[in-house]
Design brief:
This protein is of the alpha/beta class. The chain folds into 2 domains: 13-59 and 322-478, Aspartate Aminotransferase, domain 1; 67-319, Type I PLP-dependent aspartate aminotransferase-like (Major domain) (Aspartate Aminotransferase, domain 2, 3-Layer(aba) Sandwich), CATH 3.40.640.10. It contains 19 helices and 14 strands. The chain has helices at residues 30-39, 67-72, 84-97, 108-119, 133-141, 169-179, 203-216, 227-237, 246-256, 280-287, 289-294, 304-316, 320-323, 325-339, 357-360, 370-382, 421-436, 454-457, 466-478; strands at residues 54-55, 101-105, 125-128, 145-148, 184-190, 220-223, 259-263, 273-277, 352-356, 384-385, 387-389, 409-413, 444-448, 459-462. The strands form 4 sheets. It has a 7-stranded mixed beta sheet, with helices on both faces. Strand 3, helix 5 and strand 4 (145-148) form a beta-alpha-beta unit. It starts with 29 loop residues before the first helix and ends with a helix. Bound molecules: pyridoxal-5'-phosphate (PLP). Pyridoxal-5'-phosphate (PLP) binds at residues 60, 107-109, 132, 134, 190, 194, 223, 225-226, 263, 265, 273.
Protein backbone atom coordinates (compact mmCIF):
# COMPACT_ATOMS: atom_id res chain seq x y z
CA UNK A 1 0.00 0.00 0.00
CA UNK A 2 0.93 3.68 -0.29
CA UNK A 3 4.44 4.41 0.96
CA UNK A 4 4.53 7.26 3.45
CA UNK A 5 7.15 10.00 2.96
CA UNK A 6 9.06 11.44 5.94
CA UNK A 7 8.35 15.02 4.83
CA UNK A 8 4.63 15.21 4.17
CA UNK A 9 5.07 17.97 1.57
CA UNK A 10 7.10 15.51 -0.53
CA UNK A 11 4.29 12.95 -0.58
CA UNK A 12 3.60 11.67 -4.10
CA UNK A 13 2.46 8.29 -5.40
CA UNK A 14 5.52 6.04 -5.57
CA UNK A 15 5.99 3.59 -8.44
CA UNK A 16 6.67 0.00 -7.41
CA UNK A 17 8.39 -0.71 -10.71
CA UNK A 18 11.23 0.78 -12.72
CA UNK A 19 11.42 1.62 -16.41
CA UNK A 20 13.87 -0.36 -18.55
CA UNK A 21 12.67 0.33 -22.08
CA UNK A 22 11.97 3.87 -23.26
CA UNK A 23 10.43 5.47 -26.33
CA UNK A 24 11.41 8.88 -27.68
CA UNK A 25 8.74 11.57 -27.67
CA UNK A 26 8.43 14.80 -29.62
CA UNK A 27 6.65 18.01 -28.73
CA UNK A 28 5.80 20.05 -31.81
CA UNK A 29 5.66 23.87 -31.79
CA UNK A 30 2.17 25.21 -31.11
CA UNK A 31 1.64 26.38 -34.74
CA UNK A 32 2.23 22.83 -35.95
CA UNK A 33 -0.09 21.47 -33.28
CA UNK A 34 -2.81 23.74 -34.63
CA UNK A 35 -2.19 22.42 -38.15
CA UNK A 36 -2.26 18.80 -36.97
CA UNK A 37 -5.54 19.07 -35.08
CA UNK A 38 -7.21 20.86 -37.97
CA UNK A 39 -5.96 18.23 -40.43
CA UNK A 40 -7.34 15.59 -38.06
CA UNK A 41 -10.80 17.14 -38.33
CA UNK A 42 -10.60 18.14 -34.66
CA UNK A 43 -10.95 14.47 -33.82
CA UNK A 44 -8.13 13.32 -31.55
CA UNK A 45 -8.54 9.76 -32.89
CA UNK A 46 -7.31 11.03 -36.25
CA UNK A 47 -4.07 12.56 -34.92
CA UNK A 48 -0.82 10.76 -35.67
CA UNK A 49 1.08 9.43 -32.67
CA UNK A 50 4.31 11.02 -33.94
CA UNK A 51 2.67 14.44 -33.46
CA UNK A 52 1.72 13.80 -29.84
CA UNK A 53 3.69 14.44 -26.68
CA UNK A 54 1.39 12.77 -24.12
CA UNK A 55 -0.98 10.22 -25.56
CA UNK A 56 -3.82 10.13 -23.05
CA UNK A 57 -6.39 8.92 -25.57
CA UNK A 58 -6.96 5.60 -23.90
CA UNK A 59 -5.73 3.00 -21.47
CA UNK A 60 -6.57 0.29 -23.98
CA UNK A 61 -3.76 -1.78 -25.46
CA UNK A 62 -1.20 0.89 -24.55
CA UNK A 63 -0.23 -0.16 -21.05
CA UNK A 64 3.44 -0.91 -20.49
CA UNK A 65 4.21 -4.61 -20.38
CA UNK A 66 6.36 -6.07 -17.65
CA UNK A 67 9.63 -7.93 -18.11
CA UNK A 68 7.77 -11.15 -17.33
CA UNK A 69 5.14 -10.47 -19.98
CA UNK A 70 7.67 -9.85 -22.74
CA UNK A 71 9.70 -12.86 -21.60
CA UNK A 72 6.59 -15.06 -21.71
CA UNK A 73 6.03 -14.10 -25.35
CA UNK A 74 9.14 -16.12 -26.28
CA UNK A 75 7.66 -19.41 -25.14
CA UNK A 76 4.49 -19.16 -27.25
CA UNK A 77 3.33 -22.46 -28.70
CA UNK A 78 2.32 -21.60 -32.23
CA UNK A 79 -0.31 -24.10 -33.31
CA UNK A 80 -3.77 -23.57 -34.73
CA UNK A 81 -5.45 -26.05 -32.41
CA UNK A 82 -4.65 -27.35 -28.96
CA UNK A 83 -1.76 -24.99 -28.25
CA UNK A 84 -0.02 -25.09 -24.88
CA UNK A 85 -0.24 -21.30 -24.90
CA UNK A 86 -4.01 -21.52 -24.69
CA UNK A 87 -3.75 -24.04 -21.83
CA UNK A 88 -1.60 -21.54 -19.94
CA UNK A 89 -4.17 -18.81 -20.68
CA UNK A 90 -6.93 -21.05 -19.30
CA UNK A 91 -4.86 -21.80 -16.20
CA UNK A 92 -4.36 -18.08 -15.54
CA UNK A 93 -8.08 -17.41 -15.89
CA UNK A 94 -8.73 -20.29 -13.52
CA UNK A 95 -6.27 -18.82 -11.01
CA UNK A 96 -7.70 -15.29 -11.25
CA UNK A 97 -11.43 -16.04 -11.54
CA UNK A 98 -11.63 -19.68 -10.45
CA UNK A 99 -13.61 -20.52 -13.60
CA UNK A 100 -13.15 -23.62 -15.76
CA UNK A 101 -14.35 -22.41 -19.12
CA UNK A 102 -12.78 -19.81 -21.38
CA UNK A 103 -13.61 -18.57 -24.86
CA UNK A 104 -10.87 -16.42 -26.39
CA UNK A 105 -11.83 -13.38 -28.48
CA UNK A 106 -9.61 -10.77 -30.09
CA UNK A 107 -10.69 -7.88 -27.83
CA UNK A 108 -13.50 -6.65 -25.57
CA UNK A 109 -15.93 -5.65 -28.32
CA UNK A 110 -15.50 -9.07 -29.93
CA UNK A 111 -16.78 -10.60 -26.68
CA UNK A 112 -19.67 -8.13 -26.82
CA UNK A 113 -20.46 -9.15 -30.37
CA UNK A 114 -20.64 -12.77 -29.29
CA UNK A 115 -22.81 -12.03 -26.26
CA UNK A 116 -25.15 -9.94 -28.42
CA UNK A 117 -25.35 -12.64 -31.11
CA UNK A 118 -26.05 -15.34 -28.54
CA UNK A 119 -28.55 -13.57 -26.28
CA UNK A 120 -29.97 -10.40 -27.83
CA UNK A 121 -33.00 -10.72 -30.09
CA UNK A 122 -35.25 -7.97 -31.52
CA UNK A 123 -37.50 -6.64 -28.76
CA UNK A 124 -35.21 -7.72 -25.91
CA UNK A 125 -33.64 -5.31 -23.48
CA UNK A 126 -30.15 -5.36 -22.01
CA UNK A 127 -30.02 -3.63 -18.64
CA UNK A 128 -26.80 -2.11 -17.38
CA UNK A 129 -25.49 0.45 -14.91
CA UNK A 130 -24.14 2.40 -17.87
CA UNK A 131 -23.51 1.60 -21.51
CA UNK A 132 -20.16 1.49 -23.22
CA UNK A 133 -20.01 2.66 -26.84
CA UNK A 134 -19.20 -0.69 -28.45
CA UNK A 135 -21.51 -2.64 -26.12
CA UNK A 136 -24.46 -0.50 -27.09
CA UNK A 137 -23.62 -0.63 -30.79
CA UNK A 138 -23.62 -4.45 -30.77
CA UNK A 139 -26.84 -4.72 -28.78
CA UNK A 140 -28.75 -2.25 -30.96
CA UNK A 141 -27.36 -3.90 -34.12
CA UNK A 142 -29.00 -7.15 -32.98
CA UNK A 143 -32.34 -5.37 -32.45
CA UNK A 144 -32.09 -4.98 -28.68
CA UNK A 145 -32.51 -1.92 -26.52
CA UNK A 146 -30.12 -0.70 -23.82
CA UNK A 147 -31.54 0.49 -20.48
CA UNK A 148 -29.25 2.28 -18.05
CA UNK A 149 -29.89 2.12 -14.32
CA UNK A 150 -26.89 3.73 -12.71
CA UNK A 151 -27.81 5.21 -9.32
CA UNK A 152 -28.49 8.96 -9.46
CA UNK A 153 -25.21 9.73 -7.67
CA UNK A 154 -23.36 8.35 -10.72
CA UNK A 155 -24.34 11.33 -12.84
CA UNK A 156 -23.40 13.99 -10.31
CA UNK A 157 -20.13 15.41 -11.61
CA UNK A 158 -18.80 16.18 -8.14
CA UNK A 159 -19.48 14.02 -5.14
CA UNK A 160 -17.57 12.23 -2.44
CA UNK A 161 -19.44 8.98 -2.96
CA UNK A 162 -16.85 6.19 -3.31
CA UNK A 163 -18.93 4.02 -5.67
CA UNK A 164 -20.65 6.18 -8.25
CA UNK A 165 -20.93 3.28 -10.69
CA UNK A 166 -23.45 1.42 -8.49
CA UNK A 167 -26.73 0.15 -9.90
CA UNK A 168 -30.00 1.51 -8.57
CA UNK A 169 -31.13 -1.84 -7.17
CA UNK A 170 -34.79 -0.91 -6.65
CA UNK A 171 -35.01 0.34 -10.24
CA UNK A 172 -33.40 -2.88 -11.41
CA UNK A 173 -36.11 -4.99 -9.78
CA UNK A 174 -38.87 -2.71 -11.08
CA UNK A 175 -37.45 -2.72 -14.60
CA UNK A 176 -37.13 -6.51 -14.76
CA UNK A 177 -40.73 -6.80 -13.57
CA UNK A 178 -41.99 -4.13 -15.97
CA UNK A 179 -40.40 -5.74 -19.04
CA UNK A 180 -40.79 -9.32 -17.81
CA UNK A 181 -37.70 -11.45 -17.08
CA UNK A 182 -38.22 -13.35 -20.36
CA UNK A 183 -37.61 -10.11 -22.28
CA UNK A 184 -34.34 -9.29 -20.58
CA UNK A 185 -31.41 -10.53 -22.66
CA UNK A 186 -29.07 -10.00 -19.72
CA UNK A 187 -28.12 -7.59 -16.98
CA UNK A 188 -24.61 -6.25 -17.50
CA UNK A 189 -22.53 -4.78 -14.70
CA UNK A 190 -19.75 -2.60 -16.04
CA UNK A 191 -16.95 -2.44 -13.51
CA UNK A 192 -15.17 0.92 -13.54
CA UNK A 193 -17.88 2.56 -15.69
CA UNK A 194 -15.95 4.00 -18.59
CA UNK A 195 -18.23 6.76 -19.85
CA UNK A 196 -19.06 8.34 -16.52
CA UNK A 197 -15.56 8.88 -15.24
CA UNK A 198 -14.18 5.40 -14.56
CA UNK A 199 -16.26 5.24 -11.41
CA UNK A 200 -16.21 1.94 -9.53
CA UNK A 201 -19.06 -0.32 -8.42
CA UNK A 202 -18.95 -1.68 -4.88
CA UNK A 203 -18.62 -5.39 -4.24
CA UNK A 204 -21.83 -5.22 -2.24
CA UNK A 205 -23.70 -3.72 -5.19
CA UNK A 206 -22.30 -6.19 -7.74
CA UNK A 207 -23.24 -9.14 -5.56
CA UNK A 208 -26.72 -7.70 -4.99
CA UNK A 209 -27.22 -7.34 -8.75
CA UNK A 210 -26.21 -10.97 -9.23
CA UNK A 211 -28.68 -12.05 -6.53
CA UNK A 212 -31.52 -10.07 -8.10
CA UNK A 213 -30.76 -11.63 -11.50
CA UNK A 214 -30.67 -15.05 -9.94
CA UNK A 215 -34.05 -14.52 -8.23
CA UNK A 216 -35.68 -13.48 -11.50
CA UNK A 217 -33.90 -16.11 -13.59
CA UNK A 218 -32.15 -13.44 -15.66
CA UNK A 219 -28.60 -13.77 -16.93
CA UNK A 220 -25.96 -11.69 -15.12
CA UNK A 221 -22.89 -10.53 -17.05
CA UNK A 222 -19.85 -8.74 -15.64
CA UNK A 223 -17.80 -6.60 -17.98
CA UNK A 224 -14.46 -7.01 -16.20
CA UNK A 225 -12.43 -4.88 -18.61
CA UNK A 226 -11.81 -2.26 -15.90
CA UNK A 227 -12.02 -4.67 -12.98
CA UNK A 228 -8.45 -4.27 -11.83
CA UNK A 229 -8.99 -0.56 -11.06
CA UNK A 230 -12.35 -1.43 -9.54
CA UNK A 231 -10.77 -4.05 -7.27
CA UNK A 232 -8.23 -1.44 -6.11
CA UNK A 233 -11.15 0.84 -5.13
CA UNK A 234 -12.97 -2.01 -3.39
CA UNK A 235 -9.86 -2.72 -1.32
CA UNK A 236 -9.25 0.91 -0.45
CA UNK A 237 -12.82 2.25 -0.14
CA UNK A 238 -15.03 -0.66 0.96
CA UNK A 239 -14.69 -1.88 4.55
CA UNK A 240 -15.57 -5.51 3.83
CA UNK A 241 -12.82 -5.76 1.19
CA UNK A 242 -9.96 -4.29 3.18
CA UNK A 243 -8.71 -7.64 4.48
CA UNK A 244 -9.75 -9.73 1.49
CA UNK A 245 -7.09 -10.65 -1.03
CA UNK A 246 -7.56 -9.39 -4.56
CA UNK A 247 -7.98 -13.01 -5.64
CA UNK A 248 -10.79 -13.57 -3.13
CA UNK A 249 -12.64 -10.62 -4.64
CA UNK A 250 -12.23 -11.83 -8.24
CA UNK A 251 -13.37 -15.31 -7.21
CA UNK A 252 -16.37 -14.10 -5.27
CA UNK A 253 -17.55 -12.17 -8.30
CA UNK A 254 -17.02 -15.07 -10.66
CA UNK A 255 -18.92 -17.38 -8.31
CA UNK A 256 -21.95 -15.08 -8.45
CA UNK A 257 -21.99 -13.82 -12.02
CA UNK A 258 -23.17 -16.09 -14.83
CA UNK A 259 -20.72 -14.74 -17.39
CA UNK A 260 -17.59 -12.58 -17.18
CA UNK A 261 -15.95 -11.01 -20.21
CA UNK A 262 -12.99 -8.72 -20.48
CA UNK A 263 -10.84 -6.70 -22.78
CA UNK A 264 -7.27 -7.82 -22.10
CA UNK A 265 -6.18 -4.51 -23.58
CA UNK A 266 -6.99 -3.27 -20.07
CA UNK A 267 -7.31 -6.22 -17.69
CA UNK A 268 -3.98 -7.96 -18.03
CA UNK A 269 -1.96 -5.03 -19.49
CA UNK A 270 -1.94 -6.71 -22.90
CA UNK A 271 -4.24 -7.10 -25.91
CA UNK A 272 -6.95 -9.64 -26.70
CA UNK A 273 -9.93 -10.66 -24.62
CA UNK A 274 -12.00 -13.51 -23.29
CA UNK A 275 -15.32 -14.77 -21.98
CA UNK A 276 -15.32 -17.01 -18.94
CA UNK A 277 -17.89 -18.77 -16.77
CA UNK A 278 -18.45 -21.62 -14.36
CA UNK A 279 -21.39 -22.65 -16.51
CA UNK A 280 -20.48 -25.03 -19.33
CA UNK A 281 -23.94 -24.85 -20.93
CA UNK A 282 -23.76 -21.06 -21.24
CA UNK A 283 -20.30 -21.29 -22.74
CA UNK A 284 -21.61 -23.85 -25.25
CA UNK A 285 -24.33 -21.47 -26.35
CA UNK A 286 -21.66 -18.92 -27.33
CA UNK A 287 -19.00 -21.33 -28.55
CA UNK A 288 -20.10 -21.62 -32.19
CA UNK A 289 -19.61 -17.89 -32.73
CA UNK A 290 -15.89 -18.05 -31.85
CA UNK A 291 -14.73 -19.94 -34.96
CA UNK A 292 -17.23 -17.94 -37.01
CA UNK A 293 -16.06 -14.46 -35.99
CA UNK A 294 -12.74 -14.87 -34.20
CA UNK A 295 -10.75 -18.01 -34.95
CA UNK A 296 -10.41 -21.52 -33.55
CA UNK A 297 -11.32 -22.09 -29.90
CA UNK A 298 -7.70 -22.17 -28.77
CA UNK A 299 -6.67 -18.79 -30.16
CA UNK A 300 -9.83 -16.76 -30.88
CA UNK A 301 -8.16 -14.34 -33.28
CA UNK A 302 -5.34 -13.52 -30.86
CA UNK A 303 -1.71 -14.07 -31.79
CA UNK A 304 -0.18 -16.71 -29.47
CA UNK A 305 2.58 -14.38 -28.30
CA UNK A 306 -0.07 -11.94 -27.20
CA UNK A 307 -1.93 -14.73 -25.39
CA UNK A 308 1.24 -15.41 -23.38
CA UNK A 309 1.40 -11.73 -22.44
CA UNK A 310 -2.25 -11.77 -21.32
CA UNK A 311 -1.57 -14.85 -19.23
CA UNK A 312 1.26 -13.20 -17.34
CA UNK A 313 -0.64 -9.91 -17.17
CA UNK A 314 -3.64 -11.61 -15.57
CA UNK A 315 -1.42 -12.83 -12.73
CA UNK A 316 -0.16 -9.26 -12.38
CA UNK A 317 -3.74 -8.00 -12.12
CA UNK A 318 -3.84 -9.68 -8.70
CA UNK A 319 -0.85 -7.68 -7.49
CA UNK A 320 -1.77 -4.51 -5.57
CA UNK A 321 1.67 -3.00 -6.30
CA UNK A 322 0.77 -3.06 -9.97
CA UNK A 323 -2.94 -2.32 -9.86
CA UNK A 324 -2.58 0.64 -7.51
CA UNK A 325 -0.33 2.59 -9.87
CA UNK A 326 -3.06 3.76 -12.27
CA UNK A 327 -5.61 4.89 -9.67
CA UNK A 328 -2.94 6.60 -7.54
CA UNK A 329 -1.50 8.58 -10.47
CA UNK A 330 -5.03 9.51 -11.54
CA UNK A 331 -5.89 10.67 -8.01
CA UNK A 332 -2.72 12.81 -8.04
CA UNK A 333 -3.64 14.45 -11.35
CA UNK A 334 -7.25 15.03 -10.30
CA UNK A 335 -6.11 16.63 -7.06
CA UNK A 336 -3.64 18.95 -8.82
CA UNK A 337 -6.34 20.09 -11.25
CA UNK A 338 -8.98 20.39 -8.57
CA UNK A 339 -6.61 22.56 -6.53
CA UNK A 340 -6.27 24.79 -9.61
CA UNK A 341 -10.06 25.10 -9.73
CA UNK A 342 -10.50 23.04 -12.93
CA UNK A 343 -13.92 21.30 -12.85
CA UNK A 344 -13.17 17.60 -12.55
CA UNK A 345 -15.25 14.48 -12.11
CA UNK A 346 -14.85 13.56 -8.46
CA UNK A 347 -13.92 11.46 -6.72
CA UNK A 348 -11.05 10.36 -8.93
CA UNK A 349 -11.86 7.05 -10.61
CA UNK A 350 -9.91 4.53 -12.69
CA UNK A 351 -8.61 4.69 -16.26
CA UNK A 352 -8.08 8.46 -16.35
CA UNK A 353 -8.84 11.95 -15.11
CA UNK A 354 -12.04 13.43 -16.50
CA UNK A 355 -12.55 17.15 -17.18
CA UNK A 356 -16.13 18.32 -16.83
CA UNK A 357 -16.39 20.34 -20.05
CA UNK A 358 -19.94 21.59 -19.41
CA UNK A 359 -18.40 23.72 -16.68
CA UNK A 360 -15.21 24.59 -18.54
CA UNK A 361 -17.12 26.06 -21.51
CA UNK A 362 -20.61 26.58 -20.04
CA UNK A 363 -21.75 28.73 -22.96
CA UNK A 364 -21.15 26.07 -25.58
CA UNK A 365 -24.35 24.09 -26.28
CA UNK A 366 -24.25 20.29 -26.69
CA UNK A 367 -24.59 20.65 -30.45
CA UNK A 368 -21.32 22.57 -30.63
CA UNK A 369 -19.66 19.61 -28.92
CA UNK A 370 -17.97 21.15 -25.87
CA UNK A 371 -15.96 18.07 -24.90
CA UNK A 372 -14.50 17.70 -28.40
CA UNK A 373 -13.71 21.44 -28.44
CA UNK A 374 -11.87 21.21 -25.12
CA UNK A 375 -10.03 18.14 -26.46
CA UNK A 376 -8.84 20.12 -29.50
CA UNK A 377 -7.86 23.06 -27.26
CA UNK A 378 -5.77 20.84 -24.99
CA UNK A 379 -3.90 19.34 -27.92
CA UNK A 380 -3.10 22.87 -29.09
CA UNK A 381 -2.10 23.86 -25.55
CA UNK A 382 0.28 21.00 -24.89
CA UNK A 383 0.42 18.27 -27.53
CA UNK A 384 -1.72 16.22 -25.15
CA UNK A 385 -4.27 13.89 -26.70
CA UNK A 386 -7.40 13.15 -24.66
CA UNK A 387 -10.63 11.49 -25.74
CA UNK A 388 -14.05 13.07 -26.13
CA UNK A 389 -16.55 11.27 -23.91
CA UNK A 390 -19.61 13.42 -24.48
CA UNK A 391 -22.21 14.00 -27.18
CA UNK A 392 -19.88 13.07 -30.05
CA UNK A 393 -19.44 9.64 -28.39
CA UNK A 394 -23.23 9.10 -28.34
CA UNK A 395 -25.14 7.77 -31.32
CA UNK A 396 -28.07 9.65 -32.84
CA UNK A 397 -31.60 8.42 -32.09
CA UNK A 398 -33.18 6.25 -34.79
CA UNK A 399 -35.09 9.34 -36.05
CA UNK A 400 -31.81 11.21 -36.53
CA UNK A 401 -32.10 13.62 -33.62
CA UNK A 402 -29.02 14.22 -31.53
CA UNK A 403 -28.82 12.37 -28.23
CA UNK A 404 -27.11 14.74 -25.82
CA UNK A 405 -24.68 13.11 -23.42
CA UNK A 406 -25.49 13.10 -19.71
CA UNK A 407 -21.97 14.33 -19.06
CA UNK A 408 -19.69 16.23 -21.45
CA UNK A 409 -16.30 14.85 -20.51
CA UNK A 410 -12.78 15.02 -21.82
CA UNK A 411 -10.99 11.95 -20.60
CA UNK A 412 -7.26 12.05 -19.99
CA UNK A 413 -6.40 8.38 -19.73
CA UNK A 414 -3.34 7.29 -17.80
CA UNK A 415 -2.10 4.13 -19.48
CA UNK A 416 -0.81 1.87 -16.74
CA UNK A 417 2.93 1.99 -15.92
CA UNK A 418 3.65 4.40 -18.81
CA UNK A 419 4.03 8.05 -17.71
CA UNK A 420 6.39 9.56 -15.17
CA UNK A 421 5.20 11.97 -12.51
CA UNK A 422 6.92 14.93 -14.22
CA UNK A 423 4.84 14.23 -17.32
CA UNK A 424 1.71 14.12 -15.20
CA UNK A 425 2.73 17.50 -13.74
CA UNK A 426 3.29 18.90 -17.25
CA UNK A 427 -0.21 17.76 -18.17
CA UNK A 428 -1.70 19.48 -15.10
CA UNK A 429 0.20 22.67 -15.95
CA UNK A 430 -1.06 22.81 -19.56
CA UNK A 431 -4.65 22.05 -18.48
CA UNK A 432 -4.37 24.92 -16.00
CA UNK A 433 -3.26 27.26 -18.81
CA UNK A 434 -6.17 26.11 -20.95
CA UNK A 435 -8.55 26.65 -18.02
CA UNK A 436 -7.23 30.18 -17.52
CA UNK A 437 -7.88 30.85 -21.21
CA UNK A 438 -11.17 29.03 -21.47
CA UNK A 439 -13.08 32.08 -22.69
CA UNK A 440 -11.19 31.72 -25.99
CA UNK A 441 -12.52 28.20 -26.65
CA UNK A 442 -15.34 28.04 -29.21
CA UNK A 443 -17.49 25.31 -30.70
CA UNK A 444 -17.17 22.74 -33.47
CA UNK A 445 -19.41 21.66 -36.32
CA UNK A 446 -19.55 18.47 -38.39
CA UNK A 447 -17.82 18.25 -41.73
CA UNK A 448 -18.19 14.46 -42.08
CA UNK A 449 -20.43 12.53 -39.71
CA UNK A 450 -20.39 8.73 -40.00
CA UNK A 451 -23.59 6.90 -39.03
CA UNK A 452 -21.96 4.33 -36.72
CA UNK A 453 -19.42 5.05 -33.97
CA UNK A 454 -18.91 8.53 -35.35
CA UNK A 455 -16.44 9.51 -32.64
CA UNK A 456 -13.84 7.20 -34.15
CA UNK A 457 -13.59 8.76 -37.59
CA UNK A 458 -15.93 11.74 -37.88
CA UNK A 459 -14.44 15.11 -38.88
CA UNK A 460 -15.29 18.57 -37.54
CA UNK A 461 -14.15 22.15 -37.96
CA UNK A 462 -13.95 25.11 -35.62
CA UNK A 463 -16.77 27.64 -35.61
CA UNK A 464 -15.01 30.98 -36.13
CA UNK A 465 -11.27 31.41 -35.54
CA UNK A 466 -10.88 30.55 -31.88
CA UNK A 467 -8.09 28.05 -32.43
CA UNK A 468 -5.83 30.67 -34.11
CA UNK A 469 -6.58 33.02 -31.20
CA UNK A 470 -5.55 30.31 -28.75
CA UNK A 471 -2.21 29.90 -30.55
CA UNK A 472 -1.57 33.68 -30.37
CA UNK A 473 -2.29 33.64 -26.63
CA UNK A 474 0.06 30.67 -26.19
CA UNK A 475 2.88 32.62 -27.87
CA UNK A 476 2.13 35.67 -25.70
CA UNK A 477 2.35 33.58 -22.52
CA UNK A 478 5.07 31.07 -23.37
CA UNK A 479 7.33 33.06 -25.73
CA UNK A 480 9.29 30.67 -27.97
CA UNK A 481 8.79 27.62 -25.73
CA UNK A 482 7.39 24.44 -27.24
C1 LIG B 1 -15.78 -1.12 -20.02
C2 LIG B 1 -15.34 -1.53 -21.40
N1 LIG B 1 -15.92 -2.57 -22.00
C3 LIG B 1 -15.54 -2.96 -23.23
C4 LIG B 1 -14.57 -2.30 -23.92
C5 LIG B 1 -14.19 -2.75 -25.31
O1 LIG B 1 -12.93 -3.33 -25.29
P1 LIG B 1 -11.96 -3.30 -26.56
O2 LIG B 1 -11.47 -1.91 -26.72
O3 LIG B 1 -10.88 -4.28 -26.23
O4 LIG B 1 -12.75 -3.75 -27.73
C6 LIG B 1 -13.93 -1.22 -23.33
C7 LIG B 1 -12.88 -0.51 -24.07
O5 LIG B 1 -12.50 0.60 -23.79
C8 LIG B 1 -14.33 -0.83 -22.03
O6 LIG B 1 -13.78 0.22 -21.40
Amino acid sequence: MAVKFYQSENQVPLEMHKVRVVQKLTLLPVEQRLKCIQEAGNNTFLLQNKDIYMDMLTDSGVNAMSDKQTAAMHIADDSYAGSETFNRYKAAVKEVFGTDYLLPAHQGRACENILAEAFVKPGKVAIMNFHFTTTKAHITRCGGEVLELVAKKGLLPQSDDPFKGDFDLEELKKTIEAYGPENVAFVRVESGTNLIGGQPVSLENMLAVADICHNYGVLSVLDASLLQDNVYFMKTREAQCKYMTTKQIYHLLADKMDIIYFSARKLGFARGGGITSHNGALIKSMMEYIPLYEGFLTYGGIDVRTIESITEGLYESLDMDYISHGPEFIAYLVKELDDYGVPMIKPAGGLGAHLNCSEIVPNLPHNQYPAAAVGAALYIAGGIRGMERGTVSEQREPDGTERYAELELLRLALPRRVFTLSQVKYCADRVKWMWDNRELIGGLQWVEEPKVLRFFFGRMKEIGHWQEDLVCKFREDFGDSL
